[in-house]
């Protein structure tokens, strides 16, 4: 762990095994942090907050810029670690490192642009100022599917704003975080400003939630856990940002460019083997073009290669573990039992002797999906595309919005008016119009409804880590 500027073992001397999901090989061990270690991390972050929050934005910017340069310099080394512990193909891992570094670069600049304002007073003997200051110590809890980008997307704006941080990455993928923190240390971050701890989510989370010195929780993960964090954060009325589950629809209208729609389906569905919160989870295609769309999509899906992320020709790596694999199988069985037909794929495989890891799933297209199927109502988190049809524009919008989730949606049409009308009607925080890969550091990422609270990325992302203070001055 990295606490108060020092690398140290756990106070309990316990360790967590880190395994390669492609074959179950033990690739490393991570110190298992305790509640006592978490308290130490909070102590360090709290002590360092006073000086870090007063550090000029230009100086914070310089450290973040150096961190960005080091990440880019070592992107292949970090990617190898990521592929070893998370499984995604090396080319995707390198892409994630570059994407994640983009947040550091962006917020290195934003650190110098935290502006206040003056407001005209209704009295000649008063002046009104608005001042922004860092919220305080923050706790960042990140998932396994993007072990680099979810860390940089959270702590780059936090550090830029003048906050100090405790980061708890997923126990399945902590080694990428370790490498990022090694580079952050090399960049010159002062002692105690950012701390890294891995261990029981319940134990570490309870300490973060109950300590009133931790003023903000930022979390990416399931809606179920997000609701729990909301509830428990209320005890100390913490500021909270949540990027939660999604159930992304992809709408294809008969006036769409079908080649563009297929490419959009591929990029929005199969990145990271479908283990992405904004991955397409259900496709609605207008009746008149369904067969053409399925034919083109089947051709593209059929050439995808499944295998170890270190193999040069691999497009889709392993499922993270047996639990994830079993969920995919259950969703497909349920769909077939309820009338779906397999266009291609439909099965998985297990390699190696380890029962917990070594699971792969063949990219799958299902036709004749319907709203009774589990996968049409829940995230599958796998390389599965269920396809169904609609007749009219209003019907497509209604089907897309008929969910408690509202993270991402995709629309393909060449009609400008339709594009505006449909995207504005969709109840989602992110909409890709003829775009299957909308994520970028300079834009706000976040959802409606049960998909979360707050935004990450862009100029709005740093606002999540700032308090607004109004100062009334009598002359």
Automatic annotation (TrEMBL):
Write one Gene Ontology MF term. Answer: succinate-semialdehyde dehydrogenase (NAD+) activity
Q: Which organism is it from?
A: Anaeromonas frigoriresistens
- Under which name does UniProt file this protein? NAD-dependent succinate-semialdehyde dehydrogenase
- The residue ranges of the Aldehyde dehydrogenase domain are 7-471
| Cited Pfam families | Aldedh
Entry keyword Oxidoreductase: yes
Which residues are the signal sequence here?
A: none
Q: What is stated as this protein's family in its record?
A: Belongs to the aldehyde dehydrogenase family.
GO terms under biological process: gamma-aminobutyric acid catabolic process
């Amino acid at each position: 762990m990295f606490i108060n500027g020092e690398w140290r073992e756990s106070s309990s001397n316990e360790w967590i095994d880190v395994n390669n999901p492609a074959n179950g090989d033990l690739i490393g061990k991570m110190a298992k942090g305790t509640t006592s270690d978490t308290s130490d991390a909070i102590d360090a972050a709290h002590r360092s907050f006073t000086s870090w929050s007063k550090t000029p934005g230009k100086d914070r910017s310089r450290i973040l810029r150096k961190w960005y340069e080091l990440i880019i310099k070592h992107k292949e080394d970090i990617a190898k670690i990521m592929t070893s512990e998370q499984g995604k193909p090396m080319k995707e891992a390198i892409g994630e490192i570059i994407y994640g570094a983009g947040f550091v670069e962006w917020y290195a600049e934003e650190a110098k642009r935290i502006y206040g304002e003056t407001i005209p007073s209704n009295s000649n003997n008063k002046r009104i100022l608005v001042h922004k200051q860092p919220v305080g110590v923050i706790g960042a809890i990140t998932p396994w599917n993007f072990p680099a980008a979810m860390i940089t997307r959270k702590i780059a704006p936090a550090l830029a704003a003048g906050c100090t941080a405790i980061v708890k990455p997923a126990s399945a993928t902590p080694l990428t975080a370790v490498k990022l923190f090694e580079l952050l240390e090399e960049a010159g971050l002062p002692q105690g400003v950012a701390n890294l701890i891995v261990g029981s989510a319940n134990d570490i989370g309870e300490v973060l939630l109950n300590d009133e010195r931790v003023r903000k929780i930022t979390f990416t993960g399931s809606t179920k856990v997000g609701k729990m964090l909301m509830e428990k954060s209320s005890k100390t009325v913490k500021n909270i940002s949540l990027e939660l589950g999604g159930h992304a629809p992809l709408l294809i209208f008969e006036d769409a460019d079908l080649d563009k729609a297929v490419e959009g389906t591929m990029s929005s569905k199969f990145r990271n083997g479908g283990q992405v919160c904004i991955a397409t989870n259900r496709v609605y295609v207008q009746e008149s073009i369904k067969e053409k769309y399925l034919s083109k999509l089947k051709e593209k899906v059929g050439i995808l290669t499944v295998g170890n992320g270190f193999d040069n020709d691999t497009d889709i790596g392993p499922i993270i573990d047996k639990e994830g694999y079993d969920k995919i199988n259950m969703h497909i069985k349920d769909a077939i039992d309820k009338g779906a037909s397999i266009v291609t794929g439909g099965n998985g495989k297990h390699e190696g002797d380890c029962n917990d890891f070594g699971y792969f799933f063949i990219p799958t297209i299902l036709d004749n999906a319907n709203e009774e199927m589990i996968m049409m109502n829940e995230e599958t988190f796998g390389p599965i595309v269920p396809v169904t049809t609609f007749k009219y524009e209003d019907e497509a919008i209604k089907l897309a919005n008929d969910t408690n989730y509202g993270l991402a949606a995709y629309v393909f049409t060449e009609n400008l008016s339709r594009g505006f009308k449909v995207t504005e009607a969709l109840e989602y925080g992110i909409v890709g119009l003829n775009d299957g890969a909308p994520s970028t550091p300079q834009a706000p990422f976040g959802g409606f409804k049960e998909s979360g609270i707050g935004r990450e990325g862009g100029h709005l992302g740093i606002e999540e880590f700032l308090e607004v203070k109004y100062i009334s001055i009598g002359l």
